[in-house]
Amino acid sequence: MIRTKLCTPNISKNIVSRKNIQEKLSLLSQYKLALISAPAGYGKTTAVVSFLETAAVKYAWLSIDEPDNDPVRFWNYIRASISECLKNADVLSGIQINSELVSSNITTDLLINTLNEIAEIFTLVLDDYHLINNETVLRSVEYFIKYMPPNLSVIMISRKEPDYGISKLYSRETAVRLTIKDLAFSTDEATELFAQRGINLRPDDISDLDKRTEGWAAGLVAASISMKESANPREFISSFSGKNYSINEMLENEVYCKWPVEIRGFLVHTAFLDKLSGPLCAMVTGNAKSAELLKVLSETNSFIISLDQEKTWFRYHHLFQEFLLQKLEAENITARHSLLSLSGQWYEENGYIQDSINCYIKAKEYEKAFPLVWNIYLEVAQNGEYSLWRKWIESMPEELIESDIRACTGYSWILSIENQVDKAALWADKALACFERIRGGLDRTEQEFLEANIVLANANVSVFRMDADAALRYYKRVYELAVFTPVFVGEMNPGEPSLLETAYGFRGRLNKAVAVYESTIEDTPRVLGDFSSYLSAVLAECRYERNELKEVYSTLVKSMGRITGLRNPGIIVPCFITLAKLKRVRGDIRGALGIIESGRMILGRGNSLWSYFFDIFTAELYLYKGSAENAESWLHTDRTGIFDMLSVSREFEYIVYAKYLILRNRLDEAMILLARLEDFTKREDRLGSQIEVLCQKAICADRLGEARSSMDALYEALELGSYDGYARTFADLNHPMADLLIKYKSWVKETGNNKHFEYSKKLLKLTKANIKLQNAARLQENAGNPNGKSVKDHLSERESAVLKLMTEELSNQEIADKLFITVRTVKYYNARIFDKLGVNNRLEAIIKARELGL
Hints:
Structural class: mainly alpha
Oligomer: single chain
Strand content: under 5%
Strand order of the largest sheet: 2-3-4-1-5
């Protein structure tokens, strides 16, 4: 990440006062958004920087480039920019970002939620937003602006009109708007501009020049630079190119040609660089005085912008850069490649590996780029930035990739993660072909390790093809190899709270998952190291679903060291949710909440994406207790709708939201959402989720009085669940499911369809046993709290402190501020207090506390 993208461009101290612009931007505090759009060179950035500094506004800055059209890169920079601005720079560090999470708006939701809990008021500036054309980025920014918290405002600086989604905000009068009309220099402002540069012109000369440039700030500045060297300013003005000439012609005739040949060569030979620094330019051009030259160019406003206060990094004005690039393209291709190679070398030596790779690839020096691409594989795969690595590897000649076994298998693995399974299989085959060519020159240890990589690549392909038999054969084969160095496979869960629903859980096919992993689980750690815990977690989820509860616990206990040692959120979240479910089965909701809080602590503050899944499961625990109000505070229902876009990453959230709607008796809305979820889970071939949705649909239809639809949905759920032995999905629904299964008996008699009758009887027995266990736990809990004194004894010191402040009617934020904890932690203590007091909300807790003298 280039930190200078987050720095405010350095502007001249002698700038023209733009009163009209200042007045308009001062309205920003009353609106959510300022849209500043005009062609290049109209002084948009200068106007914004001047306003921010004059008004002493706290702000975060991002200078956008073409590569920022990658959604992951874009939101990584947004996160970094805001972190630079805030006092607590670590508060956003855990917001996970990948393409699926951005496209489904989970990343923006998490960012909004986190910023909403921060007291600081600030502005986010997006400079050169016109360079963004990626649909995913555009839509995610629109969503972010639509729901951003009240302590945040956004200024968008662009050369073009905003897209339709952003324009809608302006049409609702929620944005300040500055266009060419606002930014164009008036005659008085142009007079001041020239006067500051020591050029005194007659009013008619200024009027003429202003008319020719249409108030274009860059044209006026360029004119002032050239005019200083002109013997006849009047003649210069009359010949100055205006709106009838292209920008390139003006830059050619009035700027570029004014520089000495040496400087012109410097400009052209550095034109391909998005960021300029003295050492980098010195490497590329061979000019040892590059740093001084950049400073001179900046101080003379020569279409080069300083990116930091120290004036060490710069960038060309985009139009000027485009102008220079045309000249560079006219030069010998060998010379161009040489420049790219030199810049790649500098980037590599100074640790800018991604920039180095990009330069080497453009220079077609693939032999230099290839080892860097492979060396960064672990980092990229761990962060889920698969598309970036794939883009690099696909820029290489295939014969180069085919000569490296681990590059082939790594490419195969990423292709399978991106559901390009046939292509993944092809590259696994190419890895094998390479192995056969070179195996004679390898010692036994190298042979076994490389073969293990190939076998696991094929196993991975088989898993994604849902071919359990082939996957089992490959896993057995790899465990026969004498592998002493674990094979790195990367993050196996790019963003889901359940591993069972991923490809590695065969999308809910319990029989397949158990068949593949149960017989090989003991050997997995030797080959996969800590990553073997992912497969243990899949097996644990299977065993929970089949009500093999003791086996669930033992499976996770054996893997807990690897789970916590790996510290990957993609394994921590599913495991702790499964452990919390075990507590829930015993009726210990308080214990389940404690397990989830323990998971949060292990995640740390740097993983708010995955804490988001903990939030949703916390909401589900409250729905399990029948407390819709408590669930609501964790579900963020103010931004959730039944017609929202569904995605794999948000499926769990919307299933829980459907449960919330049912509990709130908003049955028509619930049925619409469940119908959409049913179609989605079928289309995505997610068996467990499909069964759960059908169960909820059956419950909802029953409450609507639609008996036939209810039984049809229940029958389909039984049809899907019977083969794999699904149990807990049904039993965990307690009374509503027990009622349905009793009605199912009558339905069987009426229809004569007894296909799943025995299965339904087993489920009914299990569900009733579950209800009995819940009732016993509730009675025991009530027996332990017969009066106020015992309740007080059960409250921890911190819980008592929170309750005291709650009775003083302080908000969660105020309580957090007084106790120096986060709002999320306050919510956690609230939940424990409500549970111990036997109440459902804050008001009931205050009343109960006062009644008991607490």
